[in-house]
Specification:
The strands form 14 sheets. Strands 20-15-14-23-24-36-35-32-29 form a 9-stranded mixed sheet, sandwiched between helices. It has a 7-stranded antiparallel sheet with strand order 38-37-41-40-39-42-43, sandwiched between helices. The chain has a 6-stranded mixed sheet with strand order 3-2-1-4-12-13, sandwiched between helices. It is an alpha+beta fold and 1331 residues long. The chain is built from 29 helices and 58 strands. Helix 3 (84-90) packs across helix 8 (236-261).
């Protein structure tokens, strides 16, 4: 044997959900490739082991018997990516585990951010929790200093910690008692729990309490995941989620690794450093350090590394967008010289706080199902899955994207293996696909003239176009929302289904070059062969880079982390010359939660300039006179692998090329603009380097099929196929805009995606650029686009109470200003008489011009934490007149021809200070910053609208915009007809009462023939001498929300939903108040009660908690030590119980109906404000009994550590949430003031800042005087005082003890798609849909 035959094998394996791919590389030898099913118990126990057996058999020249332990003698390394953790998380098949957390926080993971996943899902369906048990340990620490307060002296006592990881002083409120903890652990062990997650409040700053409990647990044999060790970053909810995910997944991952190791001689220990696993961050780690938390994107990460190493060329190429299209979904990512990471994502409703590659999963793949709903083509999110699979798989499956490609000739069934049918021995069944498409075409063509009917091929091609647009929509957001043009990238296509869609996706995005790696279907495995070993370390900090004043301390922290990371790689055998360290600082402006990861250097640098440059580049602005804080320092140490050499497609493309006339196999392929076209069918193996094939062509090998459209040219290179656009075709939309009946359902769907995408991008921009917690964290905002007449066109699923109301504001401005506005003008409004909701909701409105005329409007409404008035937070419980609630704006030109009028808007925000007992805005800087962000969001929307018009002509865009409205109108009319039949044509009636006795009465008359309905609120009480009055605009939001929630399928949300609706409201009633009455509670409380009344009339479910439980606290400017200190205001809304329905129990501890705002994390809130949040938990037993029980409310207990003005504004403290169909009502809420009976702690805590809890935290209840605050109240609380808010439960459905007579589950079943990879794009989407 020669030396080359003796070369050791480097094996890389990607164990995917369906297939396992393996590549074996040896120096000087041809690679060995193995592809096999991931699960095939009839033939082998473990696919990676079987792949290695086959490779070693080839290397040795003789077959190794199955079951024989394998030798590692001929193996240099095994690198593996696996979906074991991913599947266990998605399918909830992890280890039985328990969460250990601080007292008062047992329900931290159930409550989470208190949002619901889908705002229109009345059942609020959620996935199951990862833990089986929770125990609370009586321990607690809290920061002494709050950032909104002047510095306080640090006391010297035993309960003060000054050795936190950031240097911040902490107060120990309670220490864990080892005896009690041991008893609790014994109880868990007796229940069979073996895996624990520990997450205490503020442990990221000081983890001693966690380590104490972890030590006790390990002594008893538990596997323990400690949150402060896994990822010491702020946010309890995120860290606790990550810890329980690790406890839930790591034992499963470990068992798999042990099982894998058992197939080799010597077991796991024999591997030493030979066995490496791919982590979610794109780096490899030793098998002994591989954890479930960092394994969730193990497989997809290999694909990103693969294309970044094989397709990117910094000198000759461009930034890359990658589309990895599989059977169920598509992964989208971007690369521009550095792997892009995110540090907090949500996968399967579990927040993961760990470095992950920025990969985003889209619900569109080869198996995505095809539907025709409400006149529109819909692709996904439902999937045909592997079983039964698409219709062509011969298992009775539904129509899917693969079927469309098949009947259009884009797949080659004759070259497919015969693995289909019940016995998996038959070819693809094109006739099954055709039959279902013929049935679909009949539905599509119903009511059309012969001339307008679509052929089967047109229907199939239309679905492919919609599928491609579904993938392009998130790609635009991933690039354009971050300031990159999609067209400036090149597109990398890989994955089993990607090759058929590359040209279409690129054309839609304006991308001119597509790169397809020759190993595209094996790219994840190949990426693992090329990947580096990574050791990543993070440590929290509380340092400033303003003026680079803490640069020395930053350098010390980075140097210490670097030394640890380098030592870890050295232990794995990496010499110093192969270790490269990347240093980062996680920075933000003071008062903002938006963090930016900037590169640092070991020698130090101008960190302030680096941050401001990055902030300006990312967001378009910087903040003057704001401190820049470092929250974390991060070191990413990379051990460079000696992997295979790669070739640049750009360098290879510069070589000799020749166009080749194909004289081999040909077939007919259907293209949307050309019809059936004679197309070359070219085996990839027959193409030499430099061969060029002009489209149309299909290039294939045994693992992939690449469609080259007629406008493109494919070039064969040694390791790639490069496809270039060589013939630009200008396709004019042939639309008869005079006939609204001639609507192309394909175009209808595409325009629906494009218009909704614009609204979504506006929301992304607003959240990114805004400064306040209200927008950044609580996500209290909405963005939308409107027609020239002010009718709602597209509203991203933001705040429900804004849904129908914003169009009233836009129409009001259109009436006032007419044609007097000029390009660059932007308007500001918040007045209820001008379509406003309540005064803190400032609405920025911008006209979009085309050819000198206003053709659209864009608008962004956001809740500002304070705009002046009689109370901090501008939500006074006892306001009687509108002027008491803050600044009032009916119409103000905020921007005049591009110039922001800061002086003018400042004067408006300071105006309340002229009224008796009122203050000007307490947060002027944040107000101005957020208004700038709202303007930027509206401007972005206007730019995107004009780009769409330039591409397709205004008449066509306007035609389809109005067609989309008619689609929504038809769906609502159909719903109302069905409701009328269910009620036998009788009117729907309901009545309910606010806590003050105000009557809300509704009668709905439905005309079954036309589908029209009249919502008559006659009999509703007159406007009230309080702030429960509700602007009529909000009434329309409640109506559109309920109607949309009752429609099962995904429906465009626009003005068409309200076209069939006539609303009758008595003037000067609580639902149509006069201009000058108080309204702040109408938007947040009465709106919920109106929604309850509408739901009661439709009898679809029981009442939910019926309010938002609005808590505000703050203080105005004051003198401290002879200096004037700025004031501050804080506002939050609190979750409660949801109502039960005919087939579901009500969800507990969640926001309902008209809001979906998140709540600030306890660690962020306590760090910023002078409070201690002792408890946020489920209020057990408060949901109404019934066949299906109502959801429980919450308990929120907050102590104030300085004197503050506090106000609570809430409903359902007197009138309980009603039950439905015999179900019992939910419990009413209650609000209490716990007043300290003795003086608060000294040391200046009460006057100046956050010195922690009052001096005797263990004081019994007798230390307080308990005072009921009723539903709404305000008071001044002193240090040590607490407010306890008990929110209402939801009503029950059905007579308790009975069983369901019928199931209406389908009408309310959540259709949510659960993606495996949720990077920055999913964070933005979650922000939009859960705010």
């Amino acid at each position: 044997m020669g030396d080359q035959d003796q070369a050791l094998a480097r094996i890389a394996i990607d164990r995917g959900g369906t297939f396992t791919d393996a590549i074996c590389a040896r120096k000087g030898q041809q690679d060995i490739v193995v592809k096999l099913l991931s699960v095939d118990p009839a033939n082998y126990d473990d696919a990676p082991t079987e792949a290695i057996r086959r490779i070693l058999s080839q290397l040795g020249g003789k077959d190794i018997p199955k079951g024989q332990k394998l030798s590692l003698d001929r193996i240099e390394s095994i690198r593996m990516g696996t979906t074991v953790s991913t599947n266990a998380l998605l399918e909830r098949r992890g280890e039985r585990s328990a969460l250990i957390t601080s007292k008062g926080w047992r329900d931290v993971l159930q409550i989470g951010m208190q949002t619901r996943p889908d705002i229109f899902d009345l059942s609020i369906t959620k996935l199951s929790f990862l833990y089986d048990e929770v125990i609370e340990v009586d321990e607690r620490i809290t920061p002494i200093q709050s950032t909104v307060c002047p510095p306080v002296p640090v006391p010297t006592s035993a309960d003060i910690v000054t050795s936190s990881s950031t240097g911040e002083a902490l107060r120990i409120l309670r220490k864990p008692d080892p005896k009690v903890v041991n008893k609790q652990l014994d109880e868990l062990k007796a229940k069979g729990i073996k895996s624990l997650a520990i997450a205490f409040v503020h442990s990221f700053l000081w983890g001693d309490h966690e380590e104490l409990v972890a030590g006790l647990a390990r002594e008893k044999g538990f596997d323990v995941s400690v949150s402060s060790t896994l990822q010491p970053m702020i946010k309890l909810v995120s860290r606790a989620n990550s810890a329980i995910a690790d406890a839930y997944l790591t034992p499963v991952t470990r068992r798999y690794i042990s099982s894998f190791g058992s197939g080799f001689e010597g077991g796991l220990d024999s591997f030493g450093p030979k066995l490496l696993f791919m982590q979610s961050d794109g780096g490899l780690c030793s098998w002994s350090n591989f954890s479930g938390l960092r394994a969730i994107l193990s497989g997809p990460a290999g694909g990103v590394v693969g294309y970044s190493k094989t397709c990117y060329d910094a000198e000759r190429g461009r930034a890359l967008i990658a589309v990895d299209m599989g059977g169920t979904s598509t992964d989208v990512s971007r690369y521009d010289g550095k792997l892009e990471h995110v540090f907090e994502t949500t996968t399967a409703e579990v927040i993961i706080q760990a470095p992950q590659l920025d990969i985003n999963t889209v619900a569109a793949g080869g198996g995505s199902r095809l539907f025709f709903k409400h006149g529109m083509f819909v692709v996904g999110p439902e999937s045909a899955t592997a079983h039964p699979g698409p219709a062509c798989y011969r298992k009775g499956g539904p129509l899917a994207v693969t079927d469309a490609n098949l009947i259009l000739g884009r797949l080659l069934p004759e070259h497919f293996p015969k693995i289909f049918g019940p016995n998996e021995d038959e070819p693809l069944d094109i006739e099954a696909s055709k039959s279902l498409f013929e049935s679909m075409a009949r539905d599509v063509n119903q009511g059309k003239t012969a001339k307008d009917k679509l052929s089967v091929e047109q229907v199939a091609a239309g679905f492919l176009r919609v599928a491609n647009e579904t993938m392009c929509r998130p790609i635009r957001t991933l690039t354009e929302a971050r300031g990159f043009e999609s067209a400036s990238h090149h597109l990398v296509i890989f994955g089993g289904a990607g090759g058929q869609h590359g040209c279409s996706i690129a054309t839609t995005l304006g991308i001119e070059r597509i790169i397809v790696p020759r190993l595209s279907s094996l790219l994840s495995a190949y990426g693992m062969a090329l990947a580096d070993v990574v050791r990543e370390l993070t440590e929290p900090a509380a340092l400033s880079v303003t003026g680079n004043k803490d640069a020395g301390q930053i350098h010390v922290k980075l140097a210490a982390l670097r030394a640890r990371a380098e030592a870890s790689l050295a232990e794995q055998g990496f010499p110093p010359e192969r270790i490269v360290c990347e240093l980062y600082l996680n920075c933000r402006y003071h008062g903002s939660s938006t963090q930016l990861m900037i590169e640092a250097t070991a020698e130090g640098a101008d960190y302030e300039t680096r941050f401001t440059d990055a902030h300006k580049r990312e967001f378009g602005f910087n903040l003057d006179n704001r401190e820049i804080w470092v929250d974390d320092v991060r070191v990413r140490a990379v051990g460079k692998s000696l992997g295979a050499e790669t070739r640049s497609p750009y360098a290879d493309f510069e070589g000799e090329k020749r166009e080749r006339a194909w004289d081999g196999e040909r077939k007919q392929v259907y293209f949307e603009s050309e019809g059936w076209v004679d197309t070359a069918v070219v085996p990839l193996a027959e193409l030499r380097e430099g061969d060029q094939i002009k489209g149309p062509a299909i290039i294939f090998d045994h693992t992939q099929t690449i469609l080259v459209e007629p406008t493109h040219m494919a070039t064969s290179l040694p390791e790639h196929v490069v496809i270039d656009l060589v013939e630009k075709k200008i396709v004019q939309d042939d639309v008869d805009t005079s006939d609204e009946t001639k609507v192309d359902p394909v175009q209808l769907s595409v325009y629906g995606h494009r218009l909704m995408g614009i609204a979504e991008q506006m929301g992304d921009i607003l959240r990114k650029i805004s400064i306040s917690i209200n927008i950044k964290e609580r996500l209290d905002y909405s963005c939308a686009i409107f027609a020239s007449d002010g009718g709602l066109v597209a509203n991203a699923p933001h705040i429900p109470c804004h849904l129908g109301a914003m169009s009233h504001a836009v129409r009001h401005q259109a009436r006032i200003h007419g044609d007097s506005l000029k390009p660059g003008d932007v308007l500001l409004s918040n007045h209820p008489a001008a379509g406003g909701s309540h005064l803190p909701d400032l609405t920025v409105i911008m006209p979009a011009f085309h050819d000198g005329k206003i053709v659209f409007w864009t608008a962004a409404r956001a809740h500002h934490a304070d705009i002046g008035g009689i109370r901090a937070g501008s939500m006074p419980p006892f306001s009687k007149e509108l002027w008491e609630e803050g600044a009032q704006v009916k119409s103000f030109k905020l921007v005049k021809e591009g110039k922001f009028d800061e002086d003018g808007v400042t004067a408006i925000l300071n105006e309340p200070g002229k009224y008796p007992g009122c203050s000007p805005t307490r947060t002027l800087s944040d107000n101005l910053s957020d208004l700038h962000a709202q303007v930027a969001a509206c401007h972005r929307g206007a730019v995107l609208i004009n780009a769409l018009i330039d591409q397709h002509m205004y008449a066509v865009v306007d035609f389809y915009m109005r067609a989309i409205m008619r689609t929504a109108e038809r769906a609502v009319r159909d719903l109302l007809r069905e409701v009328s039949k269910r009620f036998g044509g009788k009117p729907l009636e309901a009545v309910d009462w606010l806590d003050d006795g105000t009557t809300l009465r509704l009668k709905i008359d439905i005309d079954e023939a036309s589908g029209n309905a009249t919502f008559d609120f006659s009999g509703t009480s007159a406007q009230t001498y309080n702030n429960l009055n509700t602007p009529t605009a909000i009434l329309y939001s409640a109506i559109i929300y309920v109607l949309r929630s009752l429609i099962v399928s995904d429906l465009p949300l626009n003005q068409g939903c309200l076209t069939p609706i006539k609303v009758i409201v008595p003037r000067s009633s609580v639902l149509a108040p006069d201009d000058d009455v108080a309204v702040c509670a109408g938007n947040v409380e009465s709106s919920q009660r109106v929604t309850d009344v509408i739901i009661k009339a439709f009898q679809c479910c029981a009442a939910s908690q019926g309010g938002c439980n609005n808590l505000t606290f703050g203080v105005g400017p004051r003198e401290v030590d002879g200096k004037t200190v700025s004031g501050f205001g804080y506002y939050e809304t609190i979750a409660g119980g949801a109502g039960a329905g005919p087939s579901w129990d009500g969800q507990s501890c969640v926001h309902v109906h008209m809001t979906n705002t998140a709540i600030g994390d306890v660690e962020i809130t306590e760090r910023i404000y002078p409070v201690v949040i002792h408890e946020f938990s489920r209020r057990h037993g408060t949901g109404g009994a019934g066949r299906h029980r109502g959801g429980d409310g919450c308990v929120r207990d907050i102590e104030f550590t300085q004197e503050l003005d506090v106000a609570i504004l809430s409903q359902r403290r007197v009138v309980p949430p009603y039950g439905m169909a015999g179900g019992e009502p939910g419990a009413v809420g209650a609000n209490y003031w716990l007043k300290r009976k003795r003086a608060p702690a000294s040391a200046g805590a009460g006057a100046n800042g956050h010195a922690g809890a009052a001096d005797d935290e263990t004081a019994p209840e007798a230390a307080y005087t308990v005072v009921s605050l009723g539903g709404s109240n305000q008071c001044t609380m002193r240090p040590g005082d607490r407010i306890v808010i008990n929110t209402p439960g939801g009503g029950g459905y059905g007579v308790p003890g009975t069983t369901d007579e019928r199931m209406d589950a389908e009408a309310y079943k959540s259709k949510a798609f659960v993606g495996r990879a949720n990077g920055s794009l999913a964070s933005w989407r979650a922000a939009a849909e859960s705010n």
